[in-house]
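User: Can you predict the 3D structure of Lysine exporter LysO family protein? Sequence below.
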Amino acid sequence: MVVIAVTALILGILTGTFWENGFTAFLTANSGLILYLLMFLVGISIGLHRGIIDGLRRYHIRILVIPAGIIAGSILGGALCGLLLGIPLSQSTAIASGLGWYSLTGITITNLMGAHLGSIAFLSNLMREIFSFFSIPWISRHLGYFSCIAPAGATSEDTTLPMMIRYTNEETVVISVLNGVICSAAVPVLIAFCSRMF
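Assistant: Sure. Here are the predicted C-alpha coordinates for Lysine exporter LysO family protein:
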Protein backbone atom coordinates (compact mmCIF):
# COMPACT_ATOMS: atom_id res chain seq x y z
CA MET A 1 0.00 0.00 0.00
CA VAL A 2 2.82 2.39 0.88
CA VAL A 3 4.62 1.61 -2.38
CA ILE A 4 1.42 2.23 -4.36
CA ALA A 5 0.80 5.55 -2.59
CA VAL A 6 4.35 6.82 -3.12
CA THR A 7 4.32 5.65 -6.76
CA ALA A 8 1.00 7.43 -7.35
CA LEU A 9 2.43 10.61 -5.82
CA ILE A 10 5.53 10.49 -8.02
CA LEU A 11 3.48 9.79 -11.14
CA GLY A 12 1.17 12.67 -10.27
CA ILE A 13 4.10 15.06 -9.85
CA LEU A 14 5.60 13.96 -13.16
CA THR A 15 2.23 14.24 -14.93
CA GLY A 16 1.58 17.72 -13.56
CA THR A 17 5.09 18.86 -14.43
CA PHE A 18 5.62 17.41 -17.89
CA TRP A 19 2.24 16.41 -19.30
CA GLU A 20 -0.32 19.15 -18.83
CA ASN A 21 -3.36 18.36 -20.95
CA GLY A 22 -7.14 18.14 -20.86
CA PHE A 23 -7.12 15.24 -18.40
CA THR A 24 -5.02 17.06 -15.79
CA ALA A 25 -7.08 20.21 -16.30
CA PHE A 26 -10.27 18.18 -15.73
CA LEU A 27 -8.90 16.67 -12.50
CA THR A 28 -7.79 20.07 -11.21
CA ALA A 29 -11.09 21.74 -12.06
CA ASN A 30 -13.15 18.95 -10.47
CA SER A 31 -11.16 18.20 -7.31
CA GLY A 32 -14.30 18.89 -5.25
CA LEU A 33 -16.26 16.22 -7.12
CA ILE A 34 -13.39 13.78 -6.68
CA LEU A 35 -13.45 14.53 -2.95
CA TYR A 36 -17.20 13.76 -2.78
CA LEU A 37 -16.63 10.51 -4.66
CA LEU A 38 -13.90 9.60 -2.18
CA MET A 39 -16.23 10.31 0.75
CA PHE A 40 -18.94 8.19 -0.90
CA LEU A 41 -16.53 5.26 -1.26
CA VAL A 42 -15.43 5.61 2.36
CA GLY A 43 -19.11 5.54 3.37
CA ILE A 44 -19.52 2.28 1.46
CA SER A 45 -16.46 0.88 3.23
CA ILE A 46 -17.85 1.85 6.63
CA GLY A 47 -21.23 0.36 5.77
CA LEU A 48 -19.62 -2.95 4.82
CA HIS A 49 -18.16 -3.40 8.32
CA ARG A 50 -20.99 -5.50 9.76
CA GLY A 51 -19.49 -5.71 13.25
CA ILE A 52 -19.48 -1.97 13.91
CA ILE A 53 -22.92 -1.81 15.53
CA ASP A 54 -22.18 -4.88 17.68
CA GLY A 55 -18.89 -3.31 18.74
CA LEU A 56 -20.60 -0.08 19.72
CA ARG A 57 -23.13 -2.02 21.81
CA ARG A 58 -20.38 -4.00 23.50
CA TYR A 59 -18.04 -1.13 24.40
CA HIS A 60 -20.60 1.70 24.81
CA ILE A 61 -19.06 5.07 25.60
CA ARG A 62 -15.64 3.52 26.28
CA ILE A 63 -15.07 3.20 22.56
CA LEU A 64 -14.77 7.00 22.34
CA VAL A 65 -11.78 7.20 24.70
CA ILE A 66 -9.18 6.05 22.17
CA PRO A 67 -10.37 8.20 19.22
CA ALA A 68 -10.73 11.21 21.54
CA GLY A 69 -7.16 10.73 22.74
CA ILE A 70 -5.86 10.31 19.18
CA ILE A 71 -7.69 13.42 17.99
CA ALA A 72 -6.55 15.53 20.95
CA GLY A 73 -2.96 14.29 20.69
CA SER A 74 -2.83 14.89 16.93
CA ILE A 75 -4.16 18.44 17.19
CA LEU A 76 -1.88 19.28 20.14
CA GLY A 77 1.06 17.83 18.21
CA GLY A 78 0.13 19.92 15.18
CA ALA A 79 -0.12 23.03 17.35
CA LEU A 80 3.30 22.35 18.89
CA CYS A 81 4.88 21.80 15.47
CA GLY A 82 3.24 24.98 14.23
CA LEU A 83 4.74 26.96 17.12
CA LEU A 84 8.18 25.45 16.57
CA LEU A 85 8.13 26.05 12.81
CA GLY A 86 6.38 29.42 12.84
CA ILE A 87 3.28 28.13 11.02
CA PRO A 88 -0.10 29.67 12.00
CA LEU A 89 -2.10 27.42 14.33
CA SER A 90 -5.03 27.28 11.91
CA GLN A 91 -2.77 25.73 9.29
CA SER A 92 -0.74 23.38 11.50
CA THR A 93 -3.75 22.02 13.38
CA ALA A 94 -5.76 21.59 10.17
CA ILE A 95 -2.90 19.57 8.68
CA ALA A 96 -2.64 17.43 11.82
CA SER A 97 -6.43 16.93 11.77
CA GLY A 98 -5.98 14.60 8.80
CA LEU A 99 -5.18 11.83 11.31
CA GLY A 100 -3.23 9.95 8.62
CA TRP A 101 -5.91 10.14 5.91
CA TYR A 102 -3.60 11.74 3.36
CA SER A 103 -5.84 11.65 0.26
CA LEU A 104 -8.80 13.48 1.79
CA THR A 105 -6.62 15.86 3.80
CA GLY A 106 -4.54 16.89 0.81
CA ILE A 107 -7.56 17.69 -1.36
CA THR A 108 -9.52 19.40 1.41
CA ILE A 109 -6.68 21.65 2.55
CA THR A 110 -5.79 22.48 -1.05
CA ASN A 111 -9.37 23.69 -1.54
CA LEU A 112 -9.39 25.63 1.76
CA MET A 113 -5.85 26.97 2.01
CA GLY A 114 -4.06 26.49 -1.30
CA ALA A 115 -1.90 23.93 -3.07
CA HIS A 116 1.23 24.61 -0.99
CA LEU A 117 -0.42 23.66 2.30
CA GLY A 118 -2.37 20.89 0.60
CA SER A 119 0.92 19.32 -0.47
CA ILE A 120 2.31 19.61 3.05
CA ALA A 121 -0.87 18.03 4.44
CA PHE A 122 -0.72 15.19 1.95
CA LEU A 123 2.93 14.40 2.65
CA SER A 124 2.72 14.71 6.44
CA ASN A 125 -0.30 12.41 6.64
CA LEU A 126 1.28 9.96 4.19
CA MET A 127 4.38 9.93 6.39
CA ARG A 128 2.17 9.20 9.41
CA GLU A 129 0.78 6.13 7.67
CA ILE A 130 4.24 4.94 6.61
CA PHE A 131 5.53 5.50 10.15
CA SER A 132 2.62 3.41 11.44
CA PHE A 133 3.63 0.41 9.34
CA PHE A 134 7.12 0.44 10.81
CA SER A 135 6.21 1.35 14.40
CA ILE A 136 3.24 -0.96 15.10
CA PRO A 137 5.37 -4.12 15.59
CA TRP A 138 7.65 -2.31 18.08
CA ILE A 139 4.75 -0.61 19.88
CA SER A 140 2.86 -3.90 20.26
CA ARG A 141 5.86 -5.49 21.97
CA HIS A 142 6.89 -2.61 24.21
CA LEU A 143 3.85 -0.39 24.83
CA GLY A 144 0.84 -2.70 24.53
CA TYR A 145 -1.72 -3.57 21.90
CA PHE A 146 -4.08 -0.61 22.32
CA SER A 147 -1.17 1.81 21.88
CA CYS A 148 -0.76 0.52 18.31
CA ILE A 149 -3.98 2.26 17.30
CA ALA A 150 -2.62 5.76 18.02
CA PRO A 151 -0.11 6.15 15.18
CA ALA A 152 -2.55 4.59 12.70
CA GLY A 153 -5.24 7.18 13.42
CA ALA A 154 -7.96 7.16 10.77
CA THR A 155 -6.19 4.40 8.83
CA SER A 156 -6.69 1.86 11.62
CA GLU A 157 -9.82 0.56 9.87
CA ASP A 158 -8.25 -0.04 6.46
CA THR A 159 -4.63 0.27 5.34
CA THR A 160 -2.98 -0.38 8.70
CA LEU A 161 -5.57 -2.95 9.81
CA PRO A 162 -3.50 -5.91 8.49
CA MET A 163 -0.69 -4.81 10.83
CA MET A 164 -3.17 -4.76 13.71
CA ILE A 165 -4.36 -8.25 12.83
CA ARG A 166 -0.83 -9.55 12.70
CA TYR A 167 0.66 -7.91 15.80
CA THR A 168 -2.30 -7.50 18.21
CA ASN A 169 -5.29 -9.52 19.39
CA GLU A 170 -8.93 -9.80 18.33
CA GLU A 171 -10.24 -7.24 20.81
CA THR A 172 -7.71 -4.66 19.64
CA VAL A 173 -8.66 -5.31 16.01
CA VAL A 174 -12.35 -4.64 16.76
CA ILE A 175 -11.51 -1.41 18.57
CA SER A 176 -9.11 -0.51 15.77
CA VAL A 177 -11.91 -0.73 13.19
CA LEU A 178 -14.28 1.30 15.36
CA ASN A 179 -11.56 3.89 15.97
CA GLY A 180 -10.90 4.17 12.25
CA VAL A 181 -14.59 4.74 11.51
CA ILE A 182 -14.89 7.44 14.18
CA CYS A 183 -11.65 9.19 13.19
CA SER A 184 -12.49 9.04 9.47
CA ALA A 185 -15.89 10.61 10.14
CA ALA A 186 -14.22 13.31 12.26
CA VAL A 187 -11.51 14.31 9.77
CA PRO A 188 -13.57 16.64 7.51
CA VAL A 189 -15.18 18.28 10.54
CA LEU A 190 -11.85 18.76 12.32
CA ILE A 191 -10.15 20.24 9.25
CA ALA A 192 -12.98 22.72 8.70
CA PHE A 193 -13.08 23.60 12.41
CA CYS A 194 -9.32 24.09 12.82
CA SER A 195 -8.93 26.07 9.59
CA ARG A 196 -11.44 28.63 10.87
CA MET A 197 -10.94 28.48 14.64
CA PHE A 198 -7.38 29.70 15.24
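The chain has a mean pLDDT of 85. The two ends are 34 Å apart (CA to CA).
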